[in-house]
C-alpha cells in the first residue's frame, strides 16, 4: 500500500497549497498572493535573525573551541598559524556558524510550519511539530559523526602523516574552514530523511517513484558528495555517500510512521 499521506480522501498537496476550498480546513482563509510572499519574506527573515544571533552567542566561546579542536586533531608539533590579520577572526566566525546552523535549521522547519499551518490538516500539523525536535537531533548526530569519525581520519592519520623530513604547517583559517564545512555539511546531510518524508507527505513526490528511481537518487547522492567536502583524501566524500544512501533508505521506512 502506498503510504503517501491522503487525509479524508484528499491529497495533502491540496491541503498544503490551498487548492481545496477554505471551508475544508478550519481557520484556512484565502489571501492575495502578495500577502503570502510578504509573509514568506518575514518568516525567512526570522530564520536569518536566529542565524545571526547564534553566531553572536557562540563567538565569545569560539576561541576556546578552536584551541580544543586543534589539540584534539593536530600533532603537538604543529602550531596554529595565521597568515593574515583577519584570519583568526574569520576562523572563529566559521566555527560559530556551526552552532548557529544547529539552532537555525529547526527554526526553519518551525517557520515553514507557521507559514503553511493554516492550510494543513491537523495530522499534517502534527507531522511538522514532530519534525522540529527531530531536525535538531539529526543535525547534532550528523555533526558528531563528522567530528568523531571523519575528522580524526582526515587529520590524524592521513593529512598529518608526514615523515621525519617534513613538518606540516597549517593555516588556522583553512583548517577550521575544513572542520566547519564537514561538521555543518554532515549536520545538513542528516536532514535528508526529513526532506524525503516532507516531499512525500506534501505530495511533491510519490513514494513509489522514489522506490523505482533508486539509481537516479543514488547518482544524485554521488554527485552531491563529491562537491560537499574539501577533504582531498576523499574520506569525507565516501562517508557522506554511504551515509546518504543509508539515510535515504531509512527515510523510506520512516514514511509510514509520520
Description:
There is one protein chain. The N terminus is likely disordered. This protein is mostly helical and 258 residues long. Helix content is 71%, strand content 0%. It is globular. It has one domain. α3 runs parallel beside α5 and α8 runs antiparallel to α9.
Give me some keywords for this one.
about 260 residues, 9 helices, mainly alpha
List the helices and strands and how they pair.
Blueprint: H1 12-17, H2 33-73, H3 87-116, H4 122-159, H5 172-189, H6 192-201, H7 207-212, H8 214-228, H9 235-254
Q: How would you sum up the global shape?
A: globular
Residue share in β-strands: under 5%
What oligomerization state is this entry in?
single chain
User: Main β-sheet: number of strands, strand sense, barrel status?
Assistant: none
Runs in which pLDDT lies below 50 for 5 or more consecutive residues are 1-23
- Average pLDDT number: 79
Proportion of residues in helical segments:
over 70%
Number of strands: 0
Radius of gyration: 22 Å
Order of helices and strands: HHHHHHHHH
- Separation, N- and C-terminal Cα atoms: 15 Å
Q: What count of structural domains?
A: 1
How many helices? The count is: 9
Structural class: mainly alpha
